[in-house]
Amino acid sequence: MHISADRESCISGGRCMATTSEVFDQDDEGLVVVRTPVPAPDQEARARKAAYLCPAGVIRITEDPSQG
């Protein structure tokens, strides 16, 4: 799994960080920061949930880490 995010389209909802702060954070402007682009297996379900909950749909998950 590989995670990326379109920071330019982020609306600072914060749901990603609230769902899994080990994988996501927010910068001083409230925009998404992917802290762990290749999460550990035990973080994958929460990362998928965070992507699903993102109100702007800016979180992208690919199954092949080389496609990030």
Would you mind describing this structure in some detail?
The chain has 68 residues and is α+β, with helices and mostly antiparallel strands. Helices cover 22% and strands 21% of the residues. The chain has helices at residues 15-19, 44-53, and strands spanning 2-5, 24-26, 32-34, 59-62. It has a two-stranded antiparallel ribbon. The chain has a two-stranded antiparallel sheet with strand order 2-3. A hairpin with a 5-residue loop joins strand 2 and strand 3 (32-34). The chain is globular. The termini are close together.
Question: Can I get a quick summary?
Answer:
The chain is of the alpha+beta class. 22% of the residues lie in helices and 21% in strands. The chain contains two helices and four strands, in the order βαββαβ.
> In percent, how helical is the residue content?
10-25%
**Roughly what is the average pLDDT, rounded to an integer?**
94
Q: Treating each run of at least 4 consecutive H or I residues as one helix, how many helices?
A: 2
Class by alpha and beta content? alpha+beta
Q: How many E strands? A: 4
**Range of strand content:** 15-25%
Q: Overall 3D geometry?
A: globular
* Spatial ordering of strands, largest sheet: 1-4
In whole angstroms, how far apart are the ends? 9 Å
What is the N-to-C succession of helices and strands? EHEEHE
* Uncertain parts: none
The biggest beta sheet is recorded as:
2 strands, antiparallel
* Alpha-carbon Rg, integer: 11 Å
